[in-house]
Amino acid sequence: MLATTIPAREELVRKASDLIPLLRKHASWAEENRRLHDESIEALADAGVFKFRRPKHYGGYEVDSQTLFEVGTALGQGCGSTSWVASVYWIPTWMACQFPDQVQDEVFSTPDVRVCGTLSPSAMAKPVDGGILVNGKWGFISGAHHAQWQEIIAILVPPDGEPYPVMALVPLSELLVIDDWHTSGLRGTGSVSTVARDLFIPAERVLPLPAVLQGQIASKRNASSPVYRAPLLPVASAASVGTLVGMAKGAQHAFMSRMPERKITYTAYESQRDAPITHFQVAEAANKTDEAEFHAQRLAKLVDTKAEEGTEWKLEERARSRADVGATVRLAKEAIDIYATASGGSSIYSGIPIQRINRDIQAVNQHALMHPNTNAELYGRVLCGLEPNTLYI
C-alpha cells in the first residue's frame, strides 16, 4: 500500500487555476475532435486531479467536496468539457471505492486510473456461475476515450424474486466503444456509447445498486473514511456543481475580453462598455453567478459536514441536494445566456468562446439528473410530505 502527502486545498486549487490558459487553448480542438486533448489529460494528471477520490492507502488524496467544487470551478473557467470529464471521473472513482478491497487492489494498480461510468440501468444481467452475464448499451459515457475502467448499471433478473439494479466494474477493454458523440454541446467530453455482449463479470465486481444509494459500503478499508460513507447522489451532485459555476465565470471572462473594443452596431456606442444596458446585463449576470455559487457551496458544505459527523441523512436533505444542483444549473445557464445575448452577431462565429460555452450549458441543462425542473419537482414533492418517486435521491 502507498502513502502520500496530501496537498492543501489552496495548492490544489492553484494548480487547477494554472491550467486555465492551457484548457482554453485546447477547448476548440476538443470540440472539433469530440474528445479531450491528450495534453489536457496529462496536465490534469500532473495537477493531481485524478487522485482526488483515490483512497489514501493507494496514494490518493481523498479530498472533500469543497475541494472538488473549487477545483471544478477553476477548470470550468478554462473549458467546460474538461471540467465535466474531471467531475465524471471523480464520481465513478468514488463508486469504485465502495467495492470489496480486492477489487480495488486491481482497479488502483494503475497510476492515475480513470474510471468513467453511468447511473442509467440500460442493460440486462442474469446470474451465472461465479458472477453475472451482461448484455446492453450505455450512452453518454463521458471521458471513455481516456478511461481504463467503466462503472456500469444493469438490471439483474434472478431465478426467483424481483429484478433489481446492480452496479459493476468492467475494464474498458472488455466493452465495445461506439463513436456516436455528435452533439450540439459538451462535444469535447467524448461522451460516446459502450456496449456489452455476453460479458461475464465476476461476482466480487458486482454490488446491488440500492445498497450503494443508501451508503452501504462493501469495502472494509474505506468504511471509516468520511469521504466514502456518504450516500451516492449527494456525493455525485456535489462533485458536479463546480463545473457549472466555472462555466458561468468563463462566460464572464469571454464577454469582458471582447467588450471594450466592441461597438454596438447601429448605435452611437463606439464601446459596448459605455452603454447603460451593458452595465445592467453584467450586473445581473454576475449576481446570478453568485447565486449559483451559493447553492453549489451549500451543497458541498452539507456533504462534507454530514460525512465528518457521520450522521444519517434526512430525506429532506437528500432532496435539497438535488434541488441545489438544479438551482446551480438554472442560475449558471441564465447568467451565460445574458452574456451570450449581449455578445452580438459576431459572437456566433466558432472562434468566439461564448457560443461554445452557451451550447455547453444548454447540454448540461438537459442532463436527466441535473435538469432544474426535475430537481425542483422532487424537492417540492418531499417538502409536501410525499415519498420520492425515484431511487436517485
List keywords for this structure.
single chain, Butyryl-Coa Dehydrogenase, subunit A, domain 1, Butyryl-CoA Dehydrogenase, subunit A, domain 2, Butyryl-CoA Dehydrogenase, subunit A, domain 3, 3 domains, 8-stranded mixed beta sheet, 8 strands, 48% helix
Which regions are unreliable across 5 or more consecutive residues at pLDDT < 50? Answer: none
The average pLDDT is: 96
The appropriate CATH architecture of the largest domain is Up-down Bundle
Task: Kindly name the structural category.
Answer: alpha+beta
Number of domains: 3
> How big is the Rg?
21 Å
* CATH topology title of the largest domain: Butyryl-CoA Dehydrogenase, subunit A, domain 3
* Helix-strand topology string: HHHHHHEEEEEEEEHHHHHH
The shape is globular
Beta-strand percent range: 5-15%
Number of strands: 8
Give a concise summary.
The chain is an alpha+beta fold. 48% of the residues lie in helices and 13% in strands.
Outline the structure in words.
It contains 12 helices and 8 strands. It is an alpha+beta fold and 393 residues long. It folds into 3 domains: 9-107, Acyl-CoA dehydrogenase/oxidase, N-terminal domain (Butyryl-Coa Dehydrogenase, subunit A, domain 1, Orthogonal Bundle); 115-207, Butyryl-CoA Dehydrogenase, subunit A, domain 2 (Beta Barrel), CATH 2.40.110.10; 230-383, Butyryl-CoA Dehydrogenase, subunit A, domain 3 (Up-down Bundle), CATH 1.20.140. Strands 1, 2, 3, 4, 5, 6, 7 and 8 form an 8-stranded mixed beta sheet that branches. A hairpin with a 2-residue loop joins strand 2 (123-128) and strand 3. The chain is globular and about 75 Å long.
